[in-house]
Design a protein that fits this description.
single chain; 160 residues; alpha+beta; FAS1 domain; 7 helices
């Protein structure tokens, strides 16, 4: 337990963020917090196109590793537009649900592990010297609270 606390403390210190950001999401669901943040416009559009708004507005709790608009911009040209087309909904759902864990996992609970995502596949989470990655993405901000879970901001889109 001491090791986990030390890892979480180093993680939060390395990112210069508070461990608890409860006021950010008071009364707002994950979708509401993301929509109001201003840096997740592409993610919110994708969630809408995939038909996942009701799910992510549900009781949860959920942990979402949320790619920023900049993360989506790193994808090859035309990728986002293609994924948002109705005929690609199944692929979009698979990608988005790969960013979601069932349950609420705060920074203090993060450890190196293979985490089962809502899409059924495992994502590799690594903690190394206070730096946390999930797949090829860096976790750049943690513990953005929502009424039905938590958001951790990542700098790349995870592809299952």
């Amino acid at each position: 337990m001491k090791k986990l606390i030390l890892i979480a403390t180093a993680f939060a210190a390395a990112l210069a963020l508070p461990i608890n950001n409860a006021s950010a999401g008071e009364g707002k669901t994950i979708v509401g917090v993301a929509a109001g943040a201003g840096q997740f416009n592409t993610l919110v559009a994708a969630v809408k196109a995939a038909g996942l708004v009701d799910t992510l507005n549900g009781a949860g709790p959920f942990t979402v590793f949320a790619p920023t608009d900049e993360a989506f911009a790193k994808l090859p040209a035309g990728t986002v537009e293609t994924l948002l087309k109705p005929e690609n909904k199944e692929k979009l759902v698979a990608i988005l649900t790969y960013h979601v864990l069932a349950g609420k996992v705060m920074a203090a609970d993060v450890k190196t592990m293979a985490a089962k995502t809502v899409n059924g596949k495992e994502a590799s989470i690594k903690v190394d010297g206070g730096k946390v990655t999930i797949g090829a993405a860096n976790v750049v901000k943690t513990d953005i609270a929502a009424s039905n879970g938590v958001i951790h901001v990542i700098d790349a889109v995870l592809i299952p």
